[in-house]
Amino acid sequence: MTPLILIVEDDESERILYEELFQEEGYQVEVVPDGETALKRIGEQHYDLVVLDINMPGKDGLDVLREAMNVDHKLPVILNTAYKAYQDNFMSWSAAAYVVTGDRAYAHKAAILLDRAVVDICRTAELLLKR
User: Fold this and answer.
1) Which of 8, 11, 48, 129 is deepest in the core (most CB within 10 A)?
2) Nearest Cα to 71, choosing from 28, 38, 33, 119?
């Protein structure tokens, strides 16, 4: 089962970059341009990871994070932003990771979170099969 990642980014060039990056690593990727669309998709589809921009028009990433956690509190989310200041926002602490654009560890952190998500999915499936 190939992990499915949702990229939420209002900047088209960033969306394309992340989509290509994760597809090259072998992941399935969906991209959406705003928070409203992201929440709709999260309500319709299970994702193994969400990469979420914070500073977007309309619903910002912290609002989307809050609502997404209400839908699936175990959903791994990476907050991705060019601004370090959001790191001190209480809501950002709900994310699995906080990555500042340009952080060299970005891809590494994403891969670790995906690995954890896949392990959790396998454990859940194993428990369900034992019932």
Assistant:
1) 8
2) 38
Structure tokens at 117: 């998500």
CATH numbers and ranges of domains, the chain: 4-130 (3.40.50.2300)
The predicted model scores a pTM of: 0.69
pLDDT digits (tens, 9 = 90+) for 83-117: 555 455 444 445 544 444 554 455 556 666 656 65
Residue in 67, 93, 97 with CA at minimum distance from that of residue 79: 97
Spell out the residues 6+ positions from residue 85 whose beta carbon is closer than 8 angstroms to its own. Answer: none
Nearest to 33 by CA among 17, 10, 12: 10
CB neighbours of residue 3 within 10 Å: 20
CA torsion sign for 32, 117, 20, 54 is: positive
Residue 126 token pair: 């194993």
- Per DSSP, what are the bridge partners of residue 78? 51, 97
